[in-house]
Each structure stands twice: as C-alpha cells, then as structure tokens.
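Re: [ENG-882] Designed sequences occasionally contain unexpected residues at chain ends

Forwarding the minimal case from QA. Structure tokens:
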C-alpha cells in the first residue's frame, strides 16, 4: 500500500517523452478532472460498503485492476508491446492507492501511450496500402490473439499488421470490390480508428479505468460518466427509434445485441442478433459508408432517422466468415410503440396424430418484457398499462373461446419489473411465495402473491431460450417449482442479481460538476425451492437442441459472475403434479425431434459452429479462401434446397399439423377483435407469419400432449360409479 514515488517518477520520465510527441496528434489534453478525485473516492466507498459481493481494494486486487485496464484498451494484443506492459508493472501495487485517493493520473499516462501505439499502427497500415500483396503465398493471419503472448519486437508487430491489412484487403477483394475502392475503404477505416482514439476525452479515460475496477467485482456493476449518465435514458429511447434494435461493440464491429419486439427490424425479419454491421446507407440507393472501426454512437447516428425513411445495412451474420459477401438489408424507420412492446397472442389448432379432424385449441401469449407504467400507477390511474393486466384480459378471452391449453412464450424476454413477475405468477396459482431476495447484508425477504384468484388453471407450457433472463426466469422458475407448468426450450440466461442506479451527485460536497452514476448489484434472487437462477438459469423439463453459439452466451460466460448457490427452501404448497406427465411428454417430443428436419438443421449448425469456433486463424492464400467461401455458400444452397423439398413434400404424420387460427398482431382494433365471428378469425390465419415458427409449433404440440395426458389421468382417477352416474344424466 506504500506509495513508491521513485518508481512512479521513473515511469513518468519513460512516458513523458512520447507524451510530448503526442501533443499534436491528440486533440484533447488528457488529464484527470478535479471532480474525478471525489468521484473515485465515493465509488470505492459504495462498492466496499453496499455491493452484494464486496471486494476489499488492496494490493492483490490492484494487480488485477491493472491487468484488466490493459486488456480493456488492447484486448487482442495488437497495440502494446511486451515492454510496454512490463513498464506498466511499476504500478502493480499503486492502482488501489490511486483509486482510493482519486489521484488517477497513472490511468491517463497509460492511455497516452495507448493512443501513440494506435497512431503508429494505423499510419503503418495506411502505408501498406501502397504496396502489392501476394495472395499466392502460403501464410495465415491469427485474428484472435487473446491467449497469445504480446509482441516483443517492432519487426514482429509490423509483420502482424502486414497480415492484418492483407486479410482486410482479401476480405473486400473476395466480396467483389475493385482495387481502388478497397484501398479507399481501408484507408478511411484505419484513419477512423486513429481519429476515434484522438477524440477520446477525459471522461472516456476515467470511465475506462474506473470500470476496470468496478466490472472486475461483478459483470453487472459499472460506472457511468456524467455525459453517459445524463443521456442514458435518452439514448435508450432513441435506440428504439429508427430500426428497433439495441447495438453494441465487438472488437472493431458494431453488432446487433437485441432485436426489439414490435420494431421495424423485427417486422422486416432479416436482421438477427449477433449480426455485424459493415456499412450503412441512406435511402433506397444512397452509397454505403463503411463503419468498421467507428464509435458506437456514430453508427447509431447513421442508423437513426425520421419515421418513414429507409436505411440500408450491409451486414455479416454471426457465423459468416469475414470474407463472406455481406448481404444488404433495407429497413423503413419507425418508432416502436408501447402497444407493440406489449403482450400479443395467437390461437392455434393442433391436429391429432391419430385423427386429423380432432384438434386441440391452444393459446399462445408472446411476452417481450415484464412492463409496468410506473408513472400512471403512481398517479392512481385505473387503466395503467402492465403485463399482468394485459395477460389477464387475454386469458379471460381464452377462457371465453374455450382455449384448452396455453403456451407462454418468453423467448428473448430480457426481464423487467419484479412486481409484474410476481403478479403474473399469481394468475396461475392461488397464493404463496414467488421469489426470495437476499440482500448484501444477508437478510432474506420473500415476495408473495396474496391474491387467491386463479385466472388460468388449465395446462401450461413456458417456452424459454438463452435470451430469457431476470424476471422471465423468476416467473418460469416459480411455476416450475409449484408443479404448475412444464418449461421447454433452451436453458435461460442465468441472471439472478438485482442492480440499482445510484446518483453520485447525492454524495458530492459541491455541485460544480456532475459526478455520474454507479450501477450497483445490491441483492440476488433465489427460487422458492432455495436454488438460484444465477449462473445456471432455469433448466427446461424438456430441452430443445442448442443453437449455434448458445454455449458462449449467458451469465456463466462472464469470468467474474457470481456463482450458483442456494438458501433455505421457502414454505410453499405444490399446486400441481407433473411428475408422471413429464417423462411421457419428453418421450413424445424425442420421437418428433428425430423426425423434424428443422431440429436436425439446428444440430448440424451447432456442430458446424463448434468445429470452427476454436480456429483462430485464417489463410491468406486467395485460392484457399475462395474454396472455403464456396463451401459455405454451397452449404447455404443445400440447406435452401432441403427446405424447399420439405415444403413441397409431407412430413412424418407424427409431426402433426399446427394451424394459426388467430394472431392479435394482425388486428389493429381490439374492439373489432371481440366482434369477430369464427369465419373472420379463420381468415386471419393466412396473414400470420408465426406459422413458420417451428419452435413455437413444437411447444404447442407438447402442451396439446399435456392436455391429452391430463384428460386421461382425470378419467383414470374418476371413480367408476361417478362415470355411471354421469352417463345416466347424459
């Protein structure tokens, strides 16, 4: 903990020379702001006193923060030399003191060297565009260097970047671009990387550094600098204008993190989670601007626009090779409405395997989020919008229309209001605990449903995937524990923690400068059976095949995620018994899975992805790359042909037909919907796209099977004399 002033001075002298050299290239004079000293001190106090998993800031943790900061700046080890990182080690035991005292100048010195290295590399990259590349040489480029040693010699760094530029050039060449266009695109790309770091400001550097501390404690804890904090709410709503997608950074690419339900991108249907945005164009014919290496907010500005205008995105799918030809997606900008975020529903007819004329009427509720209009509720508005009130109305309609069973579709539902998770659970049980919450101080509170009313007592299946998180997991886990629902699909995300936003200005000694906010993990969710959704997620009773890439997604993929743990079981009474039905349902599903070609495709994609995911290098020989690209293109063509053959032919009778009888998304006026007769309801199914959702259709078959098993069990359990008596009455 003792300050090593001599050592710090030595490193300062080492870095001061190049700091002066950067005076011209860096537009802003990067140095700590006075307000950041107090901010840093309060971050430490709050993290050590309030966090669910407090970590003492000492010399041992100091080393980890330094390593994390270096990795944050240069995760792929393509800028810093080994000697740079070695020189940084003089700070190993100083980082903790710096953060505690607020004297964080060391972070700015490291960043200054980082900026210099970027300028060196990008200048060299641009110069290489004037050379001629030989694409017949047998050499490869290692694009993922995370597990490799840092470069020692300048000649090695030059060779690494020569291969990188050669790979970028070959990617564009194989995508069909002309030589002059390739050079123009790459020159702009590399200069943009340098410009991005040159435009970094004091807030950026401070936030990078403090988050190297905060996120090391736990992945959902972070510091938001004043500018980011001030615009946080605005940015969130703006991200829903334009195409209706949340964007994020992955290396030098802006990627699609989540498609917003009801937004233009979701309706257009071609943009997918994980897609990399290569270029953005305006209108139906505007030129496409390469955005690789851009800041996230700059890309958002390009995509955002007025309602009714067109934006064109050049994208690569998550599993595409980087030299694959991007595909162009045109999307008409619009604003996502609350109604489109709200619960939607369908009515399906699931045909019987034995008799095609026998059908089960199945209801489906698609729930994109657990929403609640807090302001309207606080005002006392009787008609405030919430998940529970909307779903209750739908369930009432289902009962009136003699719907026999329900699928609650929680795929891609990232959570939301804890209140709504509790109240929605209450629609399916009488009373009892829903979730247990353990605070950072160790106390456990139980959130209960106190309403004895059961709105839906018929068979229920809950459909989840890896993007089902938080409140979705609370709802699914509770009904699974009560024996009230069968959970099917993929394992859920595994986020079982609760965060709160803490304005640091509340602790400021003066109001001259805003201090930002701290997102802090304060408590953890536990199931009523005592287990946790944290890390493990909710494990389905019937698991569908894993999608490609799903193993690298979820809470368990964070290195410092809180581990799974358990507490004492809550006191609750089972409200259903599915122990006899689940093995039979699983057997029926397994038989269909083997015969359903779409599930076979999922398995093939999963195996194909796993085969390639550990290959961290790519050939720089044009002939080999063309062969690899052709294999991938042939694979896509073969898949398309198989699907067309399936469409023209007939599936095995075991995979019973599922018809969409009604889809609420095709009805604009709810009052008109109530007045529809059976013929009108039947006619709406032709406009319904979810008929192609084979995952949902399989969930519907499972709940239809459950309905049959329940009816059979009821007949077996009913005394014979009661059956005789019923026969007499009939």
């Amino acid at each position: 903990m003792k300050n090593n002033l001599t050592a710090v001075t030595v490193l300062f002298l080492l870095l001061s020379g190049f700091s002066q050299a950067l005076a011209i290239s860096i537009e802003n004079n990067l140095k700590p702001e006075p307000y950041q000293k107090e901010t840093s001190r309060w971050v430490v106090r709050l993290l050590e006193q309030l966090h669910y998993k407090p970590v003492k800031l000492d010399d041992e943790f100091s080393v980890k923060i330094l390593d994390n900061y270096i990795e944050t700046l240069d995760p792929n080890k393509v800028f810093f030399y080994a000697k740079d990182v070695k020189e940084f080690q003089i700070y190993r035991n100083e980082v903790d003191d710096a953060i505690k005292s607020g004297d964080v100048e060391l972070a700015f010195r490291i960043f200054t060297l980082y900026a210099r290295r970027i300028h060196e590399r990008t200048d060299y990259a641009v110069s290489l565009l004037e050379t001629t590349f030989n694409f017949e040489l047998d050499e490869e480029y290692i694009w993922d260097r995370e597990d490799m040693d840092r470069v020692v010699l300048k000649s090695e760094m030059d060779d690494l970047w020569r291969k990188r530029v050669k790979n970028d050039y070959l990617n564009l060449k194989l995508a069909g671009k002309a030589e002059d266009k390739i050079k123009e695109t790459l020159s702009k790309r590399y200069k943009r990387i340098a410009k991005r770091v040159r435009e970094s400001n004091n807030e950026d550097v401070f936030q990078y550094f403090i988050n190297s501390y905060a996120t090391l404690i736990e992945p959902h804890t972070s510091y938001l600098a004043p500018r980011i904090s001030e615009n946080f709410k605005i940015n969130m709503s703006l991200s829903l204008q334009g195409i209706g997608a949340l964007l994020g950074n992955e290396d030098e690419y802006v990627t699609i993190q989540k498609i917003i339900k009801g937004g233009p991108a979701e309706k257009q249907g071609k943009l997918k989670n994980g897609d990399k945005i290569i270029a953005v164009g305006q209108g139906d014919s505007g030129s496409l601007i390469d955005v690789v290496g851009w800041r996230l907010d700059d890309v958002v500005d390009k995509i955002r626009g007025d309602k009714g205008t067109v934006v064109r995105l050049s994208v690569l799918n998550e599993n595409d090779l980087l030299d694959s030809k991007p595909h162009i997606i045109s999307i008409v900008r619009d604003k996502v409405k609350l109604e489109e975020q709200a619960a939607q529903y369908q009515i399906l007819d699931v045909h019987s395997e034995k008799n095609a004329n026998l059908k089960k009427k199945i209801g489906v509720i698609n729930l994109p989020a657990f929403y609640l209009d807090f302001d309207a509720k606080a005002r006392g508005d009787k008609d405030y919008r919430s998940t529970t009130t909307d779903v209750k109305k739908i369930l009432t309609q289902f009962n009136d229309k003699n719907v026999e069973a329900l699928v609650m579709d929680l795929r891609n539902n990232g959570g939301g209001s804890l209140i709504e998770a509790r109240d929605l659970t209450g629609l399916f049980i009488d009373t009892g605990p829903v979730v247990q919450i353990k605070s950072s101080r160790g106390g456990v509170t139980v959130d209960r449903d106190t309403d004895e009313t059961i709105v839906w007592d018929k068979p229920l299946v809950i459909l989840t995937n890896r993007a089902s998180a938080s409140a979705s997991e609370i709802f699914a886990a509770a009904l699974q524990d009560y024996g009230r629902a069968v959970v099917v699909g993929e394992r859920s995300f595994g986020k079982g923690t609760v965060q709160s936003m803490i304005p640091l200005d509340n602790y400021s000694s003066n109001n001259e400068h805003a201090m930002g906010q701290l997102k802090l993990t304060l408590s953890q969710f536990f199931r009523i059976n005592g287990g946790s959704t944290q890390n493990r997620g909710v494990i389905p009773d019937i698991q569908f095949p894993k999608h490609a890439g799903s193993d690298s997604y979820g809470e368990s993929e964070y290195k410092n995620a809180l581990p799974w743990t358990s507490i004492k079981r809550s006191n609750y009474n089972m409200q259903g018994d599915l122990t006899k039905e689940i093995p039979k349902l699983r057997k029926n599903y397994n038989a269909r899975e083997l015969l359903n070609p779409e599930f076979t495709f999922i398995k093939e994609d999963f195996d194909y992805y796993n085969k390639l995911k550990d290959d961290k290098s790519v050939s720089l020989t044009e002939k080999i790359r063309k062969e690899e690209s052709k294999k991938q293109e042939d694979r896509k063509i073969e898949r398309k042909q198989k699907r067309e053959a399936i469409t023209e032919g007939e599936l095995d009778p075991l995979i019973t037909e599922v018809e969409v009888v009604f889809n609420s998304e095709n009805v604009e006026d709810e009052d008109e919907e109530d007045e529809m007769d059976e013929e009108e309801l039947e006619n709406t199914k032709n406009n319904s796209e979810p008929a192609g959702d084979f995952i949902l259709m399989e969930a519907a078959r499972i709940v239809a099977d459950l309905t049959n098993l329940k009816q059979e069990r009821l007949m077996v359990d009913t005394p014979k004399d009661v059956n005789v008596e019923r026969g007499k009455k009939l």
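QA comment: On inspection the terminal residues look reasonable. Residues 622-648 form the longest helix (27 residues). Proposing we downgrade this to a documentation issue.
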